[in-house]
Amino acid sequence: MNMPTAPAAPTTPGDPTGPSGQPETQDPPALANDLLTSARALGAARLNTGTAGNVSARLGAGMLITPSGLPPDQCRSEDMVTVDADGRAHGPLAPSSEWRFHRDLYAARPEAGAIVHTHAPFATALACQRREIPPFHYMIARFGGDTVRCARYATFGTQALSDHVVAAISERNACLIANHGMVVFGRDLPHALALAIEFEALCEQYWRTLQLGPPVLLSAEEMREVVARFSWYGKPQETER
Ligand SMILES: [Zn+2]
Predict the structure, then answer these.
(1) Which of 79, 74, 80, 78 is nearest to 62 (CA)?
(2) What 8-state DSSP symbol labels residue 73?
(3) Which of 78, 98, 198, 221 is catalytic?
(4) 3 and 194 in contact (C-beta within 8 Å)?
(5) pTM of the model
(6) So what's the pLDDT on residue 12?
(7) Whose CA is closest to 174, among 238, 112, 226, 235?
(8) What is the pLDDT of residues 100-135, one digit of tens each?
(9) 184: CA distance to ligand 1 center in Å?
(10) Distance in Å, CA 219 to ligand 1 centroid
């Protein structure tokens, strides 16, 4: 499978980057093309089917997001929708129904440059159990803490759901969404996509572990050490594994 990979190097002095690490001046057509490529890659990686899920990238004070109700395979890059910070959408199509939690995550988390939301099978199975994922594996730390929380249930597309997602992902960069799916953010599209794929793999590993019985969990001290190594925001990046 030919997937985009996360860039390894942090920004260097002199780079025209803003507080989020994103370029201050982005080329919207190029970003729309990258967004569509990322949305299609989620399908190829079996993280999404049909019109489920969505992807966005920060663009200036707002964002560019996949449209509502149109599968990525049938989209053109011109169909990507610009949404301002106040929620006003521009374009021929409506934005994904979950634009609110994308907007609110960009506002709450300046380090977020791109967001992936999917109904990936293993993450969604755990979300339907409303389970928090415990430190059964050190790679949990990749997502910012010693657990990955599950956001409380609310109807899709509502402000209540957005509020629950922003709360559950606090100090993390992934969460499950009760009876719904998962959301992951990264510093840019390749990073968010790579994290989404890793997160679904971790959910599958947890699901398989549960078949054998309760896992032996890592201690708080063991997880603190791994979390410190995996921190990616504002610091040089540690190579994983
Ligand atoms: Zn959804």
Answers:
(1) 80
(2) G
(3) 98
(4) yes
(5) 0.86
(6) 35
(7) 112
(8) 999 999 999 999 999 999 999 999 999 999 999 999
(9) 12
(10) 33
